[in-house]
Design brief:
single chain, mainly alpha, 7 helices, about 60% helix, about 0% strand
Amino acid sequence: MAALLLPLAACATGELPPSVRLPPDAIPLAADPMRSAILGSAYTLGQASTPSAKLRAAALVEFMAADYRWGVRWSEYSPTTGLALNAARDEIRQAFGVAPGATPQAVTDGLFGASRALERGNEIYLPPGLFTEPGQALARLNAPPDLPMARNAANLAERELYRVESERTSGGGPGGVGGSGGAHP
């Protein structure tokens, strides 16, 4: 019996990937925060947006990239979604000069905090140690650069969201019976 539990004990000692909690104002009144994060980031990154909106979208992409590593809902999404989100996270961190080893929670909080400051017309507070070059980070946070990998990842996540939702409602997809169409005699 003890031999059967040994593999489970090994799993229990492994570290879980870091998770991220969104601040309460990230997606107000959302019944499904992840769905709202996907749709909101895809919409914002797909058009000309205010700097505060771009920072909020970048924070949502960081959130999605962290969640992808452990969130059950992502199992229905194409594996390329995770690869795209990881590349987008790297692009965002490089674009804003995020310090290596910064936790996803610290990055998400920092980007949301900067977004809030811009919305209110306040100066952006830079958490100590979050950015490698604070002066450059401040300039980039005030005028976010284009983030093509983040835009592509958000768009891919949006397409996958719609595909998964469509398969659920139609009964299609792997092992499904839907999609045959037409009337049956």
